[in-house]
Amino acid sequence: MEMGVVFLTWTAAGLLGNSTLLCLYSYTLLTGQKVRLTDPILHHLVFANNLVVLSRGIPNTMAAFGWKNFLDDSGCKVVLYFHRVARGVSLNTTCLLSGFQFTKLCTRNSWWKISTRFHKCFGFYASLFWILQLLLNAYVPVRVIGPRYKQNVTMYMHYRYCSSGTPQSFATLLHLVLFSSMDFICLVFMIWASGSMVLVLHRHKERVRHIHSHIPSRRPDHEARATRTILTLVSMFVSFYCLSAICTVWSGLLRKPCQWLMDTSVFLGACFSVLSPFVLISRDTRVTQGFYFYTKPSFL
């Protein structure tokens, strides 16, 4: 019951935050009002995060409250497959977001050319992310086993409502190594880009410290604020990913994994998708301005 309440609260918060941002970015992109260069990337990110919360939070909530066999073999394959695909797209999009902001900070002179070209070809990058993750996770439906097969196959991992067989074939191990390598490359790139942005902001702060002006420029402040937001997102993603990976490896090394350890791994694995929209909402002035506009008292 306690885990059911935790998963239910966690899922509801994630769906509320991501759906709110999805509506905001969809409205701005369709109407063209107050569109920022990062809006297409963030729109894609919150869409992928919403799929992560839906495909992970709802089944775990139902299972934690005691529902059994609510997914058959095909349902388990589809749910876990799209969860891994959406999770991979979220990773790739976060990686792209950090690289985009790093390029913006370091190429001020030719930034208008880069931004124009990037805006035109972002649809290609977004499609590439989905195609790449659909191919990389093609092994998931092969390994995932529904509840009706639990008595016939040796289980390697239990997801409360689905299980996966022991990876024995060379092709499956090759897919796992390839998938882990892609994750590792993205994480290393995000850490490198984040460290580089911190250095750029520090050097900029040291330069402007000696400039005495009563009217400071808004552009550096806006860029610094946007960079801090992206650094926060990247730090959250890397932290939760590493903690979830540690719990997953730990449970895999045990002969009989503890359920609380596996629930912790699931919880940490989707914490970024649940918490990141609230970070974006708190840093986006359009949300606060819209909230103030609709809640301010009107006088006749």
Salient structural properties:
300 residues, mainly alpha, Rhopdopsin 7-helix transmembrane proteins, 3-stranded antiparallel sheet, 10 helices, 77% helix, 3% strand, globular
Strand arrangement within the widest β-sheet reads 1-3-2
Mean pLDDT: 78
SSE ordering: HHHHHEEEHHHHH
Provide the gyration radius in Å.
Answer: 22 Å
Structure overview:
With 300 residues, the protein is mainly alpha-helical. Strand 2 and strand 3 (163-165) form a beta hairpin. The longest helix is centred in the middle third of the chain and has 39 residues, at 170-208. A 3-stranded antiparallel β-sheet has the order 1-3-2. The chain contains 10 helices and 3 strands; from the N terminus they run H-H-H-H-H-E-E-E-H-H-H-H-H. Helix 3 (73-106) runs antiparallel to helix 4 (111-136) and helix 3 runs parallel beside helix 6. The protein has a single domain (2-289), classed as Rhopdopsin 7-helix transmembrane proteins. Residues 149-156 and 212-220 have low confidence and may be disordered. The N and C termini lie far apart (51 Å).
Topology overview:
Layout: H1 2-31, H2 39-64, H3 73-106, H4 111-136, H5 140-143, E1 144-145, E2 155-158, E3 163-165, H6 170-208, H7 218-253, H8 259-269, H9 271-283, H10 285-295
Antiparallel strand pairs: 1-3, 2-3
Give the structure's gist in a few sentences.
The protein contains ten helices and three strands, in the order H-H-H-H-H-E-E-E-H-H-H-H-H.
